[in-house]
């Protein structure tokens, strides 16, 4: 019984099938373990009066098979490293916002998408994360590090849609009100542009969930160099999937655009991006390129003046732009800097 992979209804059904109990004890079990981080749930009042069931559950209960082995902090941004049962390491980041904390969650150990500017891609692909290894990052942030987390962004290591089934399962476990209790509207899934994943997620009808898409260039030749996924799903195919994506009337698609000096920061690049995005309901996240441990000498980040200039070109054409100033860059915790080579 791994509670990091189960919803309230599933726990209740398990207790009913095994012991003739249900919602009352299921709620207590999730309260103790998920909300309070108390693995010794048998001491809770609900279980003290049911010792037979309590002993059976304790013997069947699986403790998380991962350990937080390191954590670093800079300007309230926290990166922590989790060692998994097979020795793989993953990184997660807690990002302070004005009124809440956001947890950047990894879905894979490494990544096989091969984006040239990304440190995670350079570290290579190890494996997909299991559901409890994904949800366990929130469990650790709250119960091991003691951080209050309100938002989840699937923007850590790996391509979420390359681990689709475990991603969706994790979203439902995160959302369960009796457990982690993170609303769909407070979760964002980010993709490099895997069109089948976008269409599969669209089919689930989770319209409150936010979708973020890495574009980084609206010129096919440039994007194919930066992101090999573009050779398989070029810009016109990606835009068709985004145009069909079902959005709640108050939601929009986040377009992520990493600015790289001399590569995709020109006025021509901005004009191409405007033309590409005009038919879509989007907001643009501009992010300065963050160099990795062994950065490509062809890539350099832009300065604040260039960031503001590019933003103004987009805004003058009617696009809504958010400028994301790097947080945690010195920790190697910025966008594109996470790695299995901790």
UniProtKB/TrEMBL annotation:
Residue ranges of domain Radical SAM core in the record: 97-341
PROSITE patterns: RADICAL_SAM
Co-factor(s): [4Fe-4S] cluster
Top-rank taxon, per record: Bacteria
One of the GO biological process terms: rRNA base methylation
A cellular component term, taken from the record's GO annotations: cytoplasm
Keywords: 4Fe-4S, Cytoplasm, Disulfide bond, Iron, Iron-sulfur, Metal-binding, Methyltransferase, rRNA processing, S-adenosyl-L-methionine, Transferase
A matching Pfam family: Radical_SAM
UniProt feature coiled coil, ranges: none
Gene Ontology MF terms: 4 iron, 4 sulfur cluster binding; metal ion binding; RNA methyltransferase activity
InterPro entries linked to this entry: Aldolase_TIM, Methyltransferase_A, RNA_MTrfase_RlmN, rRNA_lsu_MTrfase_RlmN/Cfr, rSAM, rSAM_sf
Location(s) in or outside the cell: Cytoplasm
Family: Belongs to the radical SAM superfamily. RlmN family.
Record protein name field: Radical SAM core domain-containing protein
Native species: Desulforapulum autotrophicum (strain ATCC 43914 / DSM 3382 / VKM B-1955 / HRM2)
């Amino acid at each position: 019984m791994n509670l990091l992979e189960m919803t309230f209804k599933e726990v209740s059904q398990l207790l009913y099938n095994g012991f003739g109990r249900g919602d009352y004890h299921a709620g207590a079990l999730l309260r103790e373990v998920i909300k309070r981080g108390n693995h010794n749930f048998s001491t809770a009042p609900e279980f003290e009066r049911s010792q037979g069931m309590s002993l059976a559950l304790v013997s069947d209960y699986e403790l998380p098979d991962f350990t937080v082995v390191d954590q670093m902090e800079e300007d309230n941004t926290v990166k922590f490293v989790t060692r998994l049962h097979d020795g793989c390491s993953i990184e997660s980041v807690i990002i302070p916002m004005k009124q809440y904390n956001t947890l950047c969650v990894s879905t894979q150990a490494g990544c096989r998408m091969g984006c040239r500017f990304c440190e995670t891609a350079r570290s290579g692909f190890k494996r997909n994360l299991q559901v409890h290894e994904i949800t366990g990052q929130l469990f650790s942030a709250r119960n091991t590090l003691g951080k209050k987390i309100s938002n989840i962004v699937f923007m850590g290591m790996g391509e979420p849609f390359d681990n689709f089934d475990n991603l969706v399962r994790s979203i439902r476990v995160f959302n369960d009100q009796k457990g982690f209790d993170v609303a769909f509207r407070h979760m964002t899934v980010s993709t490099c542009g895997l069109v089948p994943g976008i269409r599969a997620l669209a089919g689930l009808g989770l319209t409150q969930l936010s979708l973020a898409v890495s574009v980084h260039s609206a010129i096919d030749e440039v994007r194919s160099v930066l992101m090999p996924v573009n050779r398989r799903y070029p810009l016109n195919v990606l835009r068709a999937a985004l145009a069909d994506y079902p959005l709640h009337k108050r939601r929009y698609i986040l377009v992520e655009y990493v600015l790289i000096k001399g590569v995709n920061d020109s006025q021509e690049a901005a004009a191409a991006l405007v033309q590409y995005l005009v038919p879509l309901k989007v907001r643009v996240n501009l992010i300065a390129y963050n160099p990795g441990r062994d950065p490509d000498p062809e890539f350099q980040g832009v300065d604040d003046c260039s960031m503001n200039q590019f933003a103004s070109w987009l805004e003058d054409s009617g696009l809504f732009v958010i400028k994301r100033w790097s947080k945690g860059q010195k920790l190697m915790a910025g966008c594109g800097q996470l790695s299995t080579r901790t």
